[in-house]
């Protein structure tokens, strides 16, 4: 009897312990519905309430940009322009001002500005090359470059537009004054989404021009001539470089007969006899060579007795300049370099 009684008590105690344990578990389950402590994750419902905004991780939308080039053709870019192929130095000039690098360039050798220290330096020598000639760039190389935009020179590269159809839009320019060079810079800034960079470059150029305009005494008669032989031409005050030179020097050269400048380039053929009439104090020479061993224009002209009679020649003020920059660049950076170099020669005591 005693053994049975003890067994019954043991069973009773075990049942009481089991009930106590069940009660403790029930209490923990209830507590789990309370607000989580620091360091714990929120409940699924709370996470759904704090879902991210729709913009998170989404790519920014792009609004197509349309601009009209110098030929009157409306050009639209329907995606961000990141790769620009240059078949003219004007393009290289503008991209440098905008803080971009060409995807490929067509001009090479001594006529390129890309490798000039004021542009891309040695890096400019490694840009992908577009073969062919200046007048007929290689379409195959342009396609290989896979550009978002191609920039060329009106009157030279117009025929590329058909070949580039479906590859990339072609935008043509040909600034004939520094104002037009600024306008071209601003337009490319819009097409590439770099309007702030274009505005900054415009300000740099105009500030420099204004300072030179105020400081330069303009008591030196300057002249820019260019060519590849003794049949040279003069840049007049309506030519691109002339529009800058007339602001910083005495620059009397004009297009007197429109038939001498049928394309409105602001340049006219000239002779040494006519130069002696105005007799400039300083002559800047842009020599172009199309075959190895060709002499500079100043060297060819020196073979004429009339050349030695010019005031600039007598005073040692004939200066061969970097024709790729002075003549081919056409943009605000090239014009700014031209201004710096001309001022230093015209007014060495001031610059």
From TrEMBL:
Domain Fe/B12 periplasmic-binding per the UniProt entry, residue ranges: 83-350
This protein's UniProt keywords: Signal, Transport
GO biological process terms held by the UniProt record: iron coordination entity transport
Low complexity composition bias: residue spans: 41-64
Domain of life: Bacteria
Keyword Nucleus on entry: no
InterPro entries: ABC_transptr_periplasmic_BD, Bact_iron-sidero_bind
Subcellular location per the Swiss-Prot or TrEMBL entry: Cell envelope
Region forming the signal peptide: 1-20
Chain segments carrying region Disordered: 28-64
Pfam assignment, any one: Peripla_BP_2
GO cellular component terms listed in the entry, alphabetical order: outer membrane-bounded periplasmic space
Chief location: other
Family per record: Belongs to the bacterial solute-binding protein 8 family.
Annotated protein name in UniProt: ABC transporter substrate-binding protein
Species whose genome carries this gene: Paenibacillus soyae
